[in-house]
Amino acid sequence: MSTPIKDRYEDVLTRIERACHNCGRNPDEIVLVAVSKTKPDSDVLELADLGQLHFGENRAKSLEDRLETIHNDDIQWHFIGTLQTNKIKYMSHRVNWIQSVHKKKALKEIEKRASADNRVINALVQVNISDEDQKSGCDPDDLESILTYGQSLKHTKIKGLMGMATFTDDAEIVRPEFQKLKALRDKYSYLSEGSVSLEHLSMGMTNDLEVAIEEGSTMLRIGTAIFGERNY
Ligand SMILES: *Cc1c(COP(=O)(O)O)cnc(C)c1O
After folding, report:
1. 214 closest CA partner among 174, 186, 184, 169
2. What are the tens digits of pLDDT across the range 33-77?
């Protein structure tokens, strides 16, 4: 049976395939994270039934609520929003990926909590790549010291970088921002040692997924195109 969410989901998969085809990439290289935000659990479960495995939330409380109500061990949960160190303890028992690490203090807390639960949490370092919002992500100049710190962690694996482009559908504004994230990944790939391996570039949302794929994204975070418009 066709439902609005199934149709939108298939449209997104088609967009990804087409964008990969156009630039000679393999769609299997790309992890699609479905960003559920305010949408009901039933939407998440419907997508999980369709084979979608990765889901993301941008608020600690929303993720905490999902972890309480959805019990599907196949799902990989991602935290993608502004990370407050004191909220890590509410997700560390189950979250698989924390994409928005922007300082050593957050890594230290993730390591402490994951170690206590004897688990491994994947992390991405969020870098500020747009001039729009100075608050999201670390300064590129801080990357070297954050990544060096991450090398010796045991329960935290730093898998790459995350960036949010300026909120616009103008490809010529977002493209250089994505290029900047990829250039930073390439520049610091020599720090891939121990628990650091910079294989992932999490970039691309509903408006800019095609440009992100062209510029090397390996992880897309898609909300609206899958779940429909939000009220905020
Ligand atoms: C909401 C959100 C997304 C998804 O945005 P859409 O434009 O709805 O696809 C991606 N990343 C972050 C950090 C978000 O907060």
Report:
1. 174
2. 999 999 999 999 999 999 999 999 999 999 999 999 999 999 999
Strand pairing category for 156-163 and 54-57: unpaired
Q: Is there an atom of ligand 1 within 6 Å of 39 CB?
A: no
Closest ligand 1 atom, CA of 230? Answer: 8
| pTM (2 d.p.) | 0.97
* Residue ranges in the chain assigned as alpha helix (H): 4-22, 41-49, 60-69, 104-116, 143-150, 171-188, 209-214, 224-227
Ligand 1 and 165: CB distance under 6 A = no
| Helix 171-188, helix 143-150: angle, nearest 10 | 50
- Pairing mode of beta strands 54-57, 76-79: parallel
The first and second tokens of residue 53, run together, are 């495995």
Chain centroid to CA 231: how far? 22
Domain 5-227, CATH: 3.20.20.10
